[in-house]
Amino acid sequence: MPRPERTAVILVAAGRGLRAGAGGPKQYREIGGRTVIFRAMQAFCEHPAIFAVQPVVNPDDAAVFTEAVAGLRHQPPTNGGATRQASVHAGLEALAAEKPDIVLIHDAARPFVTPAVISRAIDAAGRTGAAIPTIPVTDTVKQICDAGNVEATPDRARLRIAQTPQAFRFDVILDAHRRAAREGRSDFTDDAALAEWAGLTVATFEGDPANMKLTTPEDFVREEARLAAQLGDIRTGTGYDVHAFGDGDHLMLCGVRVPHTRGFLAHSDGDVGLHALVDAILGALADGDIGSHFPPSDPQWKGAASDKFLKYAVDRVTARGGRIANLEVTMICERPKIGPLRDVMRARIAEITGLNISRVAVKATTSERLGFTGREEGIAATACATIRLPWSE
Questions:
Q1: Are 121 and 131 in contact (CB under 8 A)?
Q2: Cα–Cα dist 127/9, whole Å
Q3: Region(s) of the chain under CATH 3.30.1330.50
Q4: What's residue 1's pLDDT?
Q5: Which residues contact 135 (CB under 8 A, 6 or more apart)?
Q6: With 70 as the cut, is the pLDDT of residue 3 above it?
Q7: Which of 16, 45, 87, 192 could bridge to 80 as Cys pair (CB 3.0-4.6 Å)?
Q8: What is the homologous superfamily of the domain 7-229 according to CATH?
Q9: H/E stretch holding 152
């Protein structure tokens, strides 16, 4: 039997996105709580028919790229060129040693590509050798002359808006790019135009109106609002945790190592702040509590760092297509004093969860010397989490 065809992806991310306004290259800005490039790449990284994702980036963006796509599998990024065409050619050459049969070429500024569009692209390339996703033109289009006057009104029934991923037999599109480079042609705005120039017949397949390219500041505002509207299931959860003091010289509080005359008696590191936050998030999800996911009877969690538990809870929200809107934790203790450490703790929670620090609150209070916290026998913490999920009955 012939082996299954191997599909790779080139993610073009070397542009500067100047029309998107201030804030740096648009592919590294956030939309819906994720960077644009993360959203654009994720669907390909998780698609079962794709074996390699080849990013093409600006060499000045190496560090920000690594941070923006943390957690996604991909080939080592290759440096792009001065034009989109040059960047795609660089990606093709970087993939040549992997010998893919099919390659999909996608713009990093299109963060809303779906698995269905990807599957259609793979199928179309396998059948035709060269194919692009398109959507119908719904407005009347006018062709104008240099003076700005209307010259013609094309039949919109024959017009289509081209999208990415554009899909090709790998060897065919690589040869076309190499030929264009030899002949000094560097003016193609997409790979379909280059393929047409090289004599290929380019087929079309059904695109997706939501698979739009973010170009202007208005695009970001509109799409941010659209994403927020989809997350209409707003939920709140609460959490509580307490740990007694034992021997030791420090406490872990909200992910921060705090020198102290005592330590915590606990199975893990005893971080009451993070434990309360985990319970609050799981509560908002109606997904059990920290003990059901990380039972103290399981030896693998002995001495475990609690940031692992909090990351796990955040991942549970993400897996449901949701976002965390706000996290708040209140420490109840006489000592240590939390006030001087408040912003350090907020920053650490923000780092663990991937939230902006403006969405994280850390507060502290005493129990007026009453009860076990007042007697300095331990520390308690309460927490609240607000999350947004896609609405479902």
A1: yes
A2: 18
A3: 232-389
A4: 43
A5: 160, 161, 163, 207, 208, 209
A6: no
A7: 87
A8: Spore Coat Polysaccharide Biosynthesis Protein SpsA; Chain A (3.90.550.10)
A9: strand 150-152
pLDDT score, position 266: 85
Helix residue spans in the chain (DSSP H): 36-45, 62-68, 84-95, 115-128, 170-182, 191-197, 217-230, 272-284, 290-293, 307-319, 342-353, 371-374
Q: Among 12, 100, 90, 121, which Cα is nearest to 51's? A: 100
Q: What angle do CA 352, 357, 363 make, to 5 degrees?
A: 95
Neighbours of 370 (CB within 10 A): 9
Domain with residues 232-389, CATH architecture = 2-Layer Sandwich (3.30)
Considering the chain, tell me which residue range(s) the CATH 3.90.550.10 domain(s) occupy. 7-229
Q: What pLDDT sits at residue 365?
A: 96
User: How many Cα atoms sit within 13 Å of 203 on the Cβ side?
Assistant: 17
Asked if 220 and 214 touch (Cβ cutoff 8 Å), the reply is yes
Question: Taking Cα atoms as reference points, which of 324, 320, 327 lies closest to residue 391?
Answer: 320
Q: Which two tokens stand for residue 366?
A: 């005493």
Q: What is the DSSP string of 166-225?
A: EEEEHHHHHHHHHHHHHTT----SSHHHHHHHTT---EEEE--TT-PPP-SHHHHHHHHH
pLDDT digits (tens, 9 = 90+) for 205-233: 999 999 999 999 999 999 988 888 888 89
